[in-house]
Write the structure tokens for this entry.
Amino acid sequence: MRKPWVRGAIGVACGALALAAVSSSAQAAFVVFEATGADAAAITPTRDAFRTAVGGGTVAGANGSFGGVRREINWDGVPDGFSDPSPLPGNFFNANSPRGVVFSTPGTGFLVSANAGGATPPLFGFSGDFATFSPQKLFTAVNSNITDVSFFLAGTTTAATTAAFAVIFTDVEVAGLTKLEFFDASNALIFSRDVLVGGNQGLSFVGGVANAGEAIARVRITSGLNTIVANGVLGNPIDDVVVMDDFLFAEPVGASAVPEPVSLVVLAVGLLGLGFVQGWRRDNVRGVSSAWREFLPEEDGHK
């Protein structure tokens, strides 16, 4: 017979292996769409393939709705009053133009770039670095390279999830600094993907589509390493600065009550641990002094 500590070690090892398996399968459960190139034409076929995988056609309805199954944001319809130098409210695309997303950042807010021909230079004042996929506006967090996207039933405060999400980036010049991360409703990481390098003024597309019922409650977008402080002003003159163009995502839907796979693994590990404790008690209670035995849990009506 194995000693109790051996049984416990086996249980922990099994739990660790199960968690690793879930992590691996969760990553594999998303179909990845990615491409990079010098202009919009280079990544359009991949954008179109993502659209097809999610569904919803090619003609946008009100509030970026494509047949009730897909939403898109291309920033170009954002009014001047919410464009650079004025900030974009984080809930603009759930309140002003309800599409079921709310943005947050560790920084100080968000900017949508200005239209050409106005008092504020377009492309955040960096026309030699950035290009657009859908002319002519871009999007960025301010004083941070992090943008978090949370999902809601469009136009409500009811939390929701989505089954697919994609972003187009511009000016990804350094590998490993720009990425997408998907989290489920329990805030567990279920998918992560680095964005392909597109080079100066190049465009990069990356997206993931769930193929096994995964539900994305939050997306974290890391855009390069540098930050935009204001029009024409960077956080530093050295690090790679990256901003965003179009967002594409499956229609946010009500959160499922079905337990997440990770929760099931935690439950299994807990049951293994309970078996370990009960086994330890059976093997060791006889050697415990009567002074301590009263603190042990009852088993079969005995102490």
